[in-house]
Amino acid sequence: MKRVSNEPDFPVNNKDFFNQIPSSWKWASLGDISEITIGKSPEGCYTTDDSSYTGLIGGASDMGNVCPVITRYTKKPVYLCQKNDVILAIRATIGRVNIADDSYCLGRGVASIRSEKIDSRFLMYYFQYAKEYFVNIATGITFMQISKRDLSRMLIPLPPLEEQVRIVRKVADAFGKLEQASEIVEQAKKEYEDMRSYFLKQAFSGKLTEAWRKEQEIDRGGWKKKRFEEVASVNTTIINSENLRHEEIPYITPGNIEKNTGKLLAYGNLKDKNLNGGMHSFSKNEILYARRNPEFSRVTIASFSGVCSPEIFTIQVKGNVRYLYYYMLSDYFLKQLLRVNPSLERVNKEQLKRIEVEMPDSEEQEKIVQLLDSVFVKEKEIYELMNVMEDIEKIKESILAKAFQGKLTEVDIER
Predict the structure, then answer these.
(1) d(CA 324, CA 108)
(2) I need a labelling partner for 319 at 20 to 30 A (CA). Which of 64, 185, 187, 331 fits?
(3) Ramachandran region of residue 324, left (φ > 0), alpha (ψ -120 to 50) or beta?
(4) Which residue, 50, 87, 89, 94, is CA-closest to 72?
């Protein structure tokens, strides 16, 4: 439905916010205090990768963390932004915001905002704070887009310029500290992922248990290559959801299995899904393996019985379940898949059955599992770190909320 009102539009759901700004501030419509330019894409024949021409910002894909990341240029720009203009993504991927570090051609996916009454960084932070507003005012069928009229109606809390600069300084300082924390978390996550990959490689090359074999006076010659079908049964039998659709049975989709970690994420139950098609059933201790996009290594061990999407194979292991599970998380397994399915789009049952599995005797399998379990137990710490990342985003939102009510203090920054 098209928006028809020309009245100023409040950008956040909390209407009390309107009365909470300091008395020295005022509310103003964006269109009344700035010059808004909606971009227009130049003709394709003038687009080039020659950086001697004018850089092109076509949409959100050309935007970086703060400033645009230019990869395309045009010989004949239509509309130009100026340095320090605020650039807002207004089409398809809506709400991303940058500050222009030069003059660029504006494509139809972006708008520029220029004002002598608003500090560019103040407006950038405010746009980040009000990101849901942009989604709410967008209209369209094929692609959602924000009109110039709707953007002009957006209300802005306007402190004096000097105070805008002080607020920007405080927010930038706080965000800088949070970014440092984010980098530490990301580095810890990467180091753990590298460590996990290393130990999986060591495990299935025989190096992880080399010292143990010497102690046990066991020769690695006992390792054998076996086809997947020799060590496990792959169930692809489709059951009809009609008779079960009202049951509160756990229902797992590929998206419920985290990539590369084996972690089962939050899932729903069949009763809430209202499904009409087929699905697979699984039992406790069976392996669930998502067959589409196998490079994502979505594999887990079921700790309960339930049903799952037909895009998930349910696998009953004839021996050590955790050994085969770890093998399926390893690069050895992925390389085997590449040999039987170079396109790596979707694995079928016959391809999976032909995969070769490195199999030591049962005692060494148990030792490998024991050692890998001791490594993978650190996953809990990594998941806690990822919760920290979520907390950081919430802290940022809180800082912005206080900033645009004039309530940001040094205490908030130190937290």
Answers:
(1) 51
(2) 331
(3) alpha
(4) 50
